[in-house]
């Protein structure tokens, strides 16, 4: 099983920004934890982060071309604004699990709507860095 973990804009700032919402762990620490977790579950993990919408879309398209088993996607603020990322997900036959470290439904109202949710296999929010592991478990069960 090969899974792509995609993190969108500002997630490279984990551990430095809004610690009350996102915690104190860094993106590097998160990715290392996920690689170790994945190894014990027989998952080959590919981790990527970009602040650029087009790059995220190219990686989503590539996941479809590479026949990956799934994508765990934290699109950050693009969740609430990007029809282009929504369309990229709809254009592939790879299950996508949308994740958010914070509970977006308890935050500002503009964060309550997701363009990604309707084309995703599921959405996991509000459990800190554990949302990624929960998403990997969900992909294992598919």
From TrEMBL:
Location of the active site: 22, 100
Q: Which domain of life is it from?
A: Bacteria
**Sorted alphabetically, which keywords does the UniProt record give?**
Amino-acid biosynthesis, Aromatic amino acid biosynthesis, Lyase
Instruction: Set out the biological process GO terms recorded for this chain's protein.
Output: amino acid biosynthetic process; aromatic amino acid family biosynthetic process; chorismate biosynthetic process; quinate catabolic process
Q: Which InterPro entries does the record associate with it?
A: DHquinase_II (IPR001874), DHquinase_II_CS (IPR018509), DHquinase_II_sf (IPR036441)
Give the record's pathway.
Metabolic intermediate biosynthesis; chorismate biosynthesis; chorismate from D-erythrose 4-phosphate and phosphoenolpyruvate: step 3/7
Quaternary structure annotation from Swiss-Prot or TrEMBL = Homododecamer.
Name the protein family.
Answer: Belongs to the type-II 3-dehydroquinase family.
Q: Outline what the protein does.
A: Catalyzes a trans-dehydration via an enolate intermediate.
* Name of the protein: 3-dehydroquinate dehydratase
Q: State the organism of origin.
A: Planococcus versutus
Q: What is the lineage of its organism?
A: Bacteria, Bacillati, Bacillota, Bacilli, Bacillales
